């Protein structure tokens, strides 16, 4: 087996249940879906250093989000007045998370996503806001994006989420599967809005297109997912009469827009090597790069969908590490600086070892290197050589 | 690429949480035998024994092959016609579907694939939590004979009509004095439960108000009555500037705190108007309707095939639960059974025969729908005053018995030994099914401050849901009366102690432990009840935030993501009664 037994059981169980819920006529057995979905309530009592509470951020649409926060160091139980206490440290990343489910399944209070969000808090020392967006087929495009945008505005306007260092909310958008797609589109909406998104984290993001790619043909039905079900979900989400080249599905396709010159956030994109839509995900990363945007692409050759749901495989830890690094570095230039430093460091040390500082520029070089290294260390960048940028 | 830091963190986290649990005195849970469940799946809501996992995997594979063969028919059938139970028990769920597919397509050749007994239309589902077979849990239930939602009464059914002399003798019980028997073994330690919080209006003034309320409660706990007095007055001052639910909740809690501080306990005319208040609550929001509906669903299923049925209602009140059940029984394809109803209620302060009046009205309804009906009423100060022998229950071969209680059982926890006595009486009644609905909250903790905090969360959410429902109510008085109804509960939880404090709500987890110890097995409510309850909510105006959730075979109704009431069903342990 490619995956651990409990992962296989978990994902196969979802596959089985989801097959029952999708009807050939495009309708969805929502009651059975809600019955089968394993949900957990929020818990203001800290568990493993994390507590959570729900907020209805838009009464009109009943839009709810679940907020996850690190518990205080003394492990004290937060009272209702403490829930929205201002965040402590200098800089606190706030990750707005959009759960997956191919736009139709799951909720912010689904057990799998509650667990994932809790892990993100501990891993990144972040506040996580998980958005309970409206789902297809009852609420098609653009409802999920509208809800995501509402959540972004809400988060950005909370005084208690501002980092004390600069009184700004340090926002990252994250999501898996359809959630990744939503993160991209909300970031797009945020451009030119005055709300700064510091980075996007996309795990197995859901993209597609009319053409059948090589990976789709090769992997159709091989690892839990079929083309047929992918098609069903797009039909359920996209406006009636639209095909998969709609920009929501295929952002860099024939109907897509170029992001060149657009102030779009930097992205961390994780692609599972056994996911049949990987060609679309890789094309997405390419599209960002072509527009001159910073992309950190993580290709996990042996990973299947849902690998991040259970901490029983190496890919899980890899991704958690990458996400942690991603949200702890604030300036992309620092990353590049770190890279620039290395070759100069080796060159300068060569000069120094010869015992010669022949020109004033050598000194300046040394100072710059020292400053750069010091700055990189200060921002907790771990430079992993060639591994980070593929 | 394995990162040691993360691996250690995972291990570290779990040992930290173990230490934390032990520190908080939750030792009893760790002393339970190791059930050998896969921990990672358990966190995600699935209970699978590690030793069962290869078998579950194999069944999943078989199901996939089977579905591939039957194509869409098999899948649609499983999705729409089958009733699903207890999805957390993956092994049982998968097995039930395999059997379902086998019976659906007897001509196919995967009888050989499944190793389980095929060919019968019902499957035994193994509930590994107690290692016993529950029997007949997965019957194929025809969803066409649906529960008639229109039968749920509103104000219309209780016109003041002429009353025909249909009721049988009403027996009066002399309240006997109870010998206090404090049975330690059945005291259920409040498990460290989750504290779900849903905030709707996070205004700064609201937070200050809550802060002040809690500070006041803390002062009361520390018996610093001078400070408490000052704070409770401040709450009153702050509350005025609030709007909506927050103001109302704060006002009720402040009043309750004031009573506690000044020791002005509410008069025991609490029973007065309680029925009327509950009627208004019934109209304003769906909690009671949901309670009746889900309990009736379980009772209906338990009564399948019986010709004589007997419901013992511990909480008759105005009898609002029964018209719908009677209607559903009348619509049975095989015709209605003879329906006996024993209703229990407290003595009325004005000495009116409330029970008899209810009985007469129900009898009238029974006549119009053609159901043979007998009503008996019992007046009792406490359920513990009853004995099975008083209730004229006939042997189980003759009649199927259901015991039903809505928001009533928790009151027994105010008197030591009362709960145990009542559970024993219930067993003596040999019921086919026991249904009860309770508030999903821990308002019975040992410490006042803890109770206060829990209650504050709970009733804030309750009031918030009323606020939304209230917006669509044509009759504003219903809303006010519903708030008074809840306000009385708040007063009792906060201001009273000892035998006066009867609103001793406990969580489903606590009730499960209690029922298990007392010799009852769970009867699971399935996807059909869930679906119909959800549909009921959709009909209910102003109900956008209400949610039904399935929890290990029980159904809970909550406001957004916060569960507020829970319906559970039980039978005598060890198979059919």
UniProtKB/TrEMBL annotation, chain A:
TM region positions: none
Entry keyword Transport: no
Active-site residues annotated for this sequence: 177
Subcellular localization(s) per the UniProt record: Nucleus
Gene Ontology terms describing biological process: floral organ morphogenesis; fruit morphogenesis; gibberellic acid mediated signaling pathway; positive regulation of gibberellic acid mediated signaling pathway; raffinose family oligosaccharide biosynthetic process
Gene3D superfamilies: alpha/beta hydrolase
Domain of life of the native organism: Eukaryota
Cross-referenced InterPro entries: AB_hydrolase_3, AB_hydrolase_fold, Carboxylest/Gibb_receptor, Lipase_GDXG_HIS_AS, Lipase_GDXG_put_SER_AS
Keyword terms: Gibberellin signaling pathway, Hydrolase, Nucleus, Receptor
Span of domain Alpha/beta hydrolase fold-3: 95-308
SUPFAM superfamilies in the cross-refs: alpha/beta-Hydrolases
Pfam families: Abhydrolase_3
Cellular component terms (Gene Ontology): cytoplasm; nucleus
GO MF entries: gibberellin binding; hydrolase activity
Family assignment from sequence similarity: Belongs to the 'GDXG' lipolytic enzyme family.
Protein name: Alpha/beta hydrolase fold-3 domain-containing protein
Organism (species): Escallonia herrerae
UniProtKB/TrEMBL annotation, chain B:
An annotated GO BP: gibberellic acid mediated signaling pathway
Motif (LXXLL motif): 409-413
Keyword Heme: no
Annotated region described as SAW, given as residue ranges: 495-571
Residue spans of biased composition, Basic and acidic residues class: 1-13
Cleaved signal peptide residues: none
Entry keywords, A to Z: Gibberellin signaling pathway, Nucleus, Transcription, Transcription regulation, Ubl conjugation
Residue span of region VHIID: 278-343
Region of interest (Disordered), ranges: 1-31
Residue ranges of the motif VHIID: 309-313
Family to which this protein belongs: Belongs to the GRAS family. DELLA subfamily.
Entry note about domains: The DELLA motif is required for its GA-induced degradation.
Protein's UniProt name: DELLA protein
Organism, as annotated: Escallonia herrerae
């Amino acid at each position: 087996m490619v995956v651990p037994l409990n992962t296989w059981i978990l994902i196969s169980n979802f596959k089985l249940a989801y097959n029952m819920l999708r009807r050939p006529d495009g309708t969805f057995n929502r009651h059975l879906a809600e019955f089968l979905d394993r949900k957990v309530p929020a818990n203001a009592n800290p568990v493993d250093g994390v507590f959570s509470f729900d907020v209805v951020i838009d009464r009109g649409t009943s839009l709810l989000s679940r907020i996850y926060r690190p518990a205080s160091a003394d492990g004290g139980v937060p009272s209702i007045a403490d829930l929205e206490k201002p965040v402590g440290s200098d800089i606190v990343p706030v990750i707005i998370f959009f759960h997956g489910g191919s736009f139709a399944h799951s909720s912010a209070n689904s057990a799998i996503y509650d667990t994932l969000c809790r892990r993100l808090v501990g891993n990144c020392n972040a506040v996580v806001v998980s958005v309970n967006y409206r789902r297809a087929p009852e609420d098609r495009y653009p409802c999920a994006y509208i809800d995501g945008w509402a959540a972004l505005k809400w988060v950005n306007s909370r005084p208690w989420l501002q980092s004390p260092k600069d009184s700004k909310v340090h926002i990252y958008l994250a999501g898996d599967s359809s959630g990744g797609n939503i993160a991209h589109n909300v970031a797009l909406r945020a451009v030119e809005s005055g709300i700064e998104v510091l980075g996007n984290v996309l795990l197995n993001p859901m993209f597609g297109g009319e053409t059948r790619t090589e990976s789709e043909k090769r992997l159709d039905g091989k690892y839990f997912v079929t083309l047929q079900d992918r098609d069903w979900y797009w039909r359920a989400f996209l406006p009636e009469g639209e095909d998969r080249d709609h920009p929501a599905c295929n952002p860099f396709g024939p109907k897509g827009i170029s992001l060149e010159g657009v102030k779009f956030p930097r992205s961390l994109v994780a692609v599972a090597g056994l996911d049949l839509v990987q060609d679309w995900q890789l094309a997405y990363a390419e599209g960002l790069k072509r527009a001159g945007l910073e992309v950190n692409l993580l290709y996990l050759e042996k990973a299947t969908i849902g690998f991040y749901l259970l901490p029983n495989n190496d890919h899980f830890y890899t991704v958690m590490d990458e996400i942690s690094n991603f949200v702890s570095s604030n300036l992309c230039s620092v990353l590049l600086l770190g890279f620039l430093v290395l070759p100069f460091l080796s060159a300068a040390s060569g000069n120094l070892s010869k015992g010669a500082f022949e020109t004033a520029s050598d000194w300046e070089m040394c100072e710059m290197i020292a400053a750069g290294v010091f700055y990189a260390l200060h921002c907790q960048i771990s430079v992993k050589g060639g591994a980070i940028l593929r | 690429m394995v990162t040691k830091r993360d691996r250690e963190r995972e291990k570290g986290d779990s040992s930290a949480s173990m230490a934390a649990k032990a520190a908080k005195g939750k030792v009893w849970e760790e002393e339970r035998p190791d059930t050998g469940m896969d921990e990672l799946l358990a966190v995600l809501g699935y209970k699978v024994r590690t030793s069962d996992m290869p078998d579950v995997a194999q069944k999943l594979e078989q199901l996939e092959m089977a579905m591939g063969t039957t194509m869409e028919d098999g899948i649609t059938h499983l999705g729409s016609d089958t009733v699903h139970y207890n999805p957390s028990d993956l092994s049982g769920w998968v097995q039930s579907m395999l059997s379902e597919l086998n019976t659906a397509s007897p001509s196919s050749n995967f009888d050989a694939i499944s190793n389980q007994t095929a060919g019968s239309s019902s499957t035994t589902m193994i509930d590994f939590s107690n290692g016993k077979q529950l029997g007949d849990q997965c019957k194929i239930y025809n969803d066409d004979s649906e529960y008639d939602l229109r039968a749920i009464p509103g104000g219309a059914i209780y016109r003041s009509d002429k009353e025909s002399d249909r009721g049988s003798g009403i027996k009066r019980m002399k309240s006997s004095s109870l010998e206090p028997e404090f049975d330690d073994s059945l005291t259920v330690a409040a498990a460290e439960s989750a504290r779900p919080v849903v905030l709707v209006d996070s205004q700064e003034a609201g937070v200050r108000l809550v802060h002040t309320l809690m500070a006041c409660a803390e002062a009361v706990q520390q018996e610093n009555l001078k400070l408490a007095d000052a704070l409770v007055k401040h709450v009153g001052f702050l509350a005025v500037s609030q709007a909506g639910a927050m103001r109302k909740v704060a006002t009720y809690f402040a009043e309750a705190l004031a009573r506690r501080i000044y020791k002005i306990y509410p008069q025991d005319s609490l029973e007065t108007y309680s029925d009327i208040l509950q009627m208004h609550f019934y109209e304003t929001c769906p909690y009671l309707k949901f309670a009746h509906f889900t309990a009736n669903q379980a009772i209906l299923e338990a009564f399948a095939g019986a010709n004589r049925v007997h419901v013992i209602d511990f909480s008759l009140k105005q009898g609002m639960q029964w018209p719908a059940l009677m209607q559903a029984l009348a619509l049975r394809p095989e015709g209605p059974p003879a329906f006996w109803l024993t209703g229990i209620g407290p003595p009325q302060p004005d000495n009116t025969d409330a029970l008899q009046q209810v009985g007469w009205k129900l009898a009238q309804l029974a006549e119009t729908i053609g159901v043979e009906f007998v009503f008996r009423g019992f007046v009792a100060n406490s359920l513990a005053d009853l004995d099975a022998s008083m209730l004229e229950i006939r042997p189980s071969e003759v009649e199927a018995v259901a015991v039903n209680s809505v928001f009533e059982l928790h009151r027994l926890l105010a008197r030591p030994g009362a709960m145990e006595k009542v559970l024993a009486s219930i067993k003596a009644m040999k019921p086919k099914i026991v249904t009860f609905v309770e508030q999903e909250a821990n308002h019975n903790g040992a410490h006042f401050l803890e109770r206060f905090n829990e209650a504050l969360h709970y009733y804030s959410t309750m009031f918030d849901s009323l606020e939304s429902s209230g917006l669509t109510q044509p009759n504003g008085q219903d809303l006010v009366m519903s708030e008074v109804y809840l306000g009385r509960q708040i007063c009792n939880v906060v201001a009273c102690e000892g035998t006066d404090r009867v609103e001793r709500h406990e969580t489903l987890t606590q009730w499960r432990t209690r029922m298990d110890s007392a010799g009852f097995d769970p009867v699971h409510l399935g996807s059909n009840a869930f679906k119909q309850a959800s549909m009921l909510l959709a009909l209910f105006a102003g109900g956008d935030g209400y949610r039904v959730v399935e929890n290990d075979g029980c159904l809970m109704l909550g406001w957004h993501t916060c569960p507020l009431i829970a319906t559970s069903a039980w039978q005598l342990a060890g198979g059919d009664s």
